[in-house]
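Technical annex, item 7. During the second reporting period the consortium partners agreed on a shared format for inverse folding records so that results from different sites could be compared directly. Each record opens with the tokenized structure and is followed by the designed sequence. A conforming record, contributed by the partner at site C, is shown below for reference.
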């Protein structure tokens, strides 16, 4: 086993993304809730069975049925249609806590989503490498869903 020195740099994670959506603010916020919740899928189209209780303190979790699942986060703040914020371990099965923020604002031609994921804890390098790509894929589905007007 190779020991890794624990430094602030390798115990923190920050991902920032901007998503430009050609759809109104309310429609984009609705698409965001749908895609993070029941519309959340794997890249090959399989449902992740995600649920969001869209109120302060509500849970964001994966429901595997029969009382089984995986807790992702609590809704830390929600202000429709401009803010959605979560705090929790997300998908991690290792010691980590995350803060995920979606700030939506009206811009010419639609909506700008400013996304920020910050985390503190042990995040293996192989997970860090895939997180940016995973969020980008999710955000592309949010954009497509909102622009389709569903």
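Designed sequence (site C submission):
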């Amino acid at each position: 086993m190779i020991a890794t020195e624990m430094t602030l740099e390798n115990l923190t994670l920050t991902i920032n993304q901007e998503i430009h959506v050609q759809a109104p603010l309310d429609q984009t916020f609705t698409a965001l809730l749908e895609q993070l919740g029941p519309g959340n899928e794997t890249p090959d189209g399989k449902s992740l069975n995600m649920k969001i209780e869209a109120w302060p303190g509500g849970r964001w979790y994966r429901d595997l049925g029969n009382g089984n699942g995986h807790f992702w986060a609590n809704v830390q703040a929600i202000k429709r249609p401009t803010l959605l914020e979560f705090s929790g371990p997300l998908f991690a099965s290792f010691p980590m806590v995350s803060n995920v923020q979606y700030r939506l604002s009206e811009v010419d031609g639609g909506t700008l989503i400013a996304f920020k994921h910050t985390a503190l804890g042990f995040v293996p390098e192989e997970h860090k490498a895939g997180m940016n790509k995973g969020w980008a894929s999710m955000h592309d589905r949010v954009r497509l869903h909102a622009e389709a007007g569903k």
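Residues 8-147 form a domain with the Alpha-D-Glucose-1,6-Bisphosphate; Chain A, domain 4 fold (CATH 3.30.530.20). The helical segments are 8-11, 25-36, 125-147. All partners now use this format for quarterly exchanges.
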